[in-house]
Amino acid sequence: MSPLVKIRSERDQMSAVERRIADFILDNAQLLRDYSSQQLANALGISQSSVVKFTQKLGFKGYPDLKYSVGEAIARADNGGVEQATAHAGGETDDSSAGGLWRRKSEAEEATRLINTSQTLAAVAGAIGTAGRSGKVFIIGLGDDDIYARGFALKLSLLGILTVHNFDTARMTANVSAASAGDVLLVFSEHGNHPALCKISRYFRERRGQVISVTRHTANPLRTLADIALLVSAHDEQPYIQPLLYQSALQHLLDGIFVRLCESDDSRHAQLVANLDRIQQMLEP
User: Domain named HTH rpiR-type: which ranges (predicted)?
Assistant: First the structure.
């Protein structure tokens, strides 16, 4: 696992001091070999012990171990390229090219994979699968989040899972009144702080349903309310790049859950094939 990817994936959960250290390493990875822990502390105006605690919190034995690991990651980069936070030759960086965007998307997807354990993904697929056999799966997302909520609702429908999708909070509130124990509510909210979605989640839990939140890897009210939290890690300094990374990592995460649902139940897979065949027949002249 690349130490830079690990730092980037955990950055949103760090304290202010830890984020300063993380940002310095990400922005100056190629120079880290020239810094001792004391020099790094001096450059940031913090104590040396803060640097040491930061490295240990990441799972390294100490600062030298982190520095060596970062150096190895840079050396392994293809074609002499470097990680997102490293620098640059000839004035123009790969980060400004399409190739750089692909690489950053791959890093966001890897970071998202690391923070969503296999047990978490299995729990999500299990909850949806169970609800699909005898109950309902409610899905809501507002604004841009509805794009992914709608797409995932369609995929579940193709598997023969009864879905109740809505992008209107008032209508979803009414729909939730028909929820019962064993049903699942999937709430898509990038920042996880929409008051109406939090209220719907509380109401759904009162109906003894299970809430699954899909948000950024940050502390947020919706994540706190959820029984299971799916998290997306996508950090970039450029405001026009960060949403692209979030969307790519989110889609990759949802695709993984869909594949689990397909492969864990032969009847669902057969239903998918049958539905796709019917749709194709409808589209033919």
Answer: 1-77
Among positive and negative, which fits the CA dihedral 117, 122, 128, 134?
Answer: negative
Residues in a beta bridge with 141: 188
As a dihedral over the C-alpha atoms of residue 199, residue 200, residue 206, residue 212, rounded to 10 degrees, the angle is -110
The third-level CATH classification (topology) of the domain covering 3-96 is: Arc Repressor Mutant, subunit A (1.10.10)
**What string of DSSP letters covers 74-122?**
HHHSGGG---TTS--SSS--GGGSHHHHHHHHHHHHHHHHHHS-HHHHH
% of residues, the chain, pLDDT over 90? 54
The ranges assigned to domains in the chain are 3-96, 118-283
Edge to edge, what strands does the sheet with 137-141 contain?
163-166, 137-141, 184-188, 210-216, 228-232
Q: Give domain 118-283's CATH number out of 3.40.50.10490, 3.30.230.10, 3.40.190.10, 3.90.1150.10.
A: 3.40.50.10490
How far, CA to CA in Å, does 198 sit from each of 22, 72, 212, 215?
31, 44, 12, 12
Condensed to tens digits (0 to 9), the pLDDT of residues 90-99 reads 444 444 556 6
Highest mean pLDDT among 24-38, 74-88, 194-208: 194-208
Q: What is the pLDDT of residues 238-279, one digit of tens each?
A: 888 889 999 999 999 999 999 999 999 999 999 999 999 999
Report d(CA 78, CA 214) in Å as an integer: 33
pLDDT digits (tens, 9 = 90+) for 110-153: 889 888 989 999 999 999 999 988 899 999 999 999 999 999 99
Q: Which residue has the tokens 């978490």?
A: 120
